[in-house]
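Posting this for the archive.
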Amino acid sequence: MDTIERRGGPRSKAGRPKSAATRVVRLPVPIAQIARRMNERGFRAGDVNAFLDVEARIAQTVPLMSASAACGFPSPADDYMEGPLDFNELMISNPAATFAVRVSGESMTGAGIFPGDIAVIDRSRGPVHGCVVLACLDGEFTIKRYLIRAGVVTLKAENPAFPNITLAEGQEFEVWGVVSGTVRKF
């Protein structure tokens, strides 16, 4: 027995295959499921439909009256109707980069965004000073007004009971998209 059997140590092609670096992040379960689907499907930037399982439907329209409805003194209604109104066209300018999220919390009530509303998010629009954004700050999602002055970003709450957030160095921050509208049911 001249050969010595080698035991232990590294073996070629053993263990998990090398891939992109990972990091543990706390996310709400629905967002974690979205991230998992993104990873499984080979997500391409801007293709929100690929991971939200959004299904295109036949466009539905409703008639749009040409007269406005006063919320104060009543006025007689006109008999004239404008063309049909398609809510998809009204709310969505870029379907491949648009998704919706249900709002929770009361920090944006001053901007007319209330808990339970559905915010329409357009990922194709870049944030500009004064717009309302869906942002991920240190692993938590928030909807706030985006303010930028002298290179300093502030996320402004539209309710005086909530503090504004001025980004500090070292914080993880990403704008997921611009809020293009909200939907509220009574």
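The beta strands are 61-65, 81-86, 98-102, 118-122, 132-137, 140-149, 152-156, 165-166, 173-183. Helices lie at 29-41, 49-52, 87-91.
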